[in-house]
Specification:
By secondary structure, the protein is of the alpha/beta class. The chain has one domain: Purple Acid Phosphatase, chain A, domain 2 (4-Layer Sandwich), CATH 3.60.21.10. The chain has 4 helices and 16 strands. The chain has helices spanning 29-32, 47-57, 123-144, 172-181, and strands at 9-16, 38-41, 61-63, 73-75, 80-82, 87-89, 94-96, 103-107, 110-111, 120-121, 150-153, 185-188, 201-204, 207-211, 215-224, 229-238. Strand 4 and strand 5 (80-82) form a beta hairpin. The protein is globular.
């Protein structure tokens, strides 16, 4: 059967960032969104929010830290940091989700703009994270026929969905990452959107870059091709 004749499989993602939305942090969430396959945290949401999503939906949760690292809880007098239970930190990592088969990667934080938090990075620090990801991305290309399906980050790429002020500008190296590894979607937060006419979805090469603030439900399609799965964005619904 040709590729065109094969039925695609749909994978539905719930992504959250920057704000606890009562429409999501709700006892009825599982009844309203029973078809979610994967949850993604794009930064600056409390640990309890991610833990709630892991428990309420009983689905894998992956996250990156925001520039305020609210995802880290502190316990005891030592001030030791603890990550949210039931969630996987994807910052600077590449992982394949066994349940969906999606290949995921993530970048934490924002560009440097102050000394208030330690989750701010220089362009060179982001480039070094990219370098460390390359062996796994190349292996994915050999093993699965593609480098990556979904990239999550807190800050957007420079000049894509970002703003001109120093606090909300994007990372220039992420543009290079998208050109090289071409995920189907790049989901980010950090940019608060209050005007429904503001652009939140921008195509860049083969990737749809989506500002998911404060949450978005994103549908992907996987369709078998000659030697792998081809993953494309099928539709998005914004909060």
């Amino acid at each position: 059967m040709s590729d065109a004749g094969r039925s695609p499989n749909q994978i539905k993602l719930l992504a959250v960032s920057d704000q606890v939305d009562p429409r999501i942090h709700s006892a009825s969430l599982r009844q309203r969104m029973p078809d979610i396959n994967l949850v993604l945290g794009c930064g600056d949401v409390p640990a309890r929010y991610l833990e709630f999503l892991a428990d309420a939906l009983d689905r894998p949760v992956y996250f990156v830290l925001g520039n305020h690292h609210e995802e880290l809880t502190r316990k005891g007098l030592s001030g030791k940091r603890y990550e949210p239970m039931g969630a996987i930190d994807l910052g600077g990592k590449v992982k394949r989700d066994d349940n969906t088969g999606l290949i995921l990667a993530g970048f934490p934080g924002s560009p440097k703009y102050s000394r208030e938090t330690d989750q701010q990075y220089s362009d060179n620090e982001i480039r070094w994270m990219m370098v460390k990801m390359i062996p796994r991305l190349l292996w994915n290309r050999i093993r699965w026929g593609r480098y990556l399906d979904v990239l999550i980050s807190h800050a957007p790429p420079r000049d894509i969905n970002d703003r001109d002020d120093i606090t909300h500008r994007g990372f220039p190296p992420l543009r290079t990452f998208l050109r090289w590894f071409r995920p189907a979607v790049h989901l980010h937060g950090h940019i608060h959107v209050y005007d429904r006419n503001e652009v939140v979805e921008t195509p860049f090469h083969d990737t749809m870059v989506i500002n998911i603030y404060p949450y978005a439900k994103v549908e992907l399609e996987t369709r078998p091709c000659a030697r792998a799965e081809r993953v494309t964005a099928a539709g998005e619904h914004y909060g």
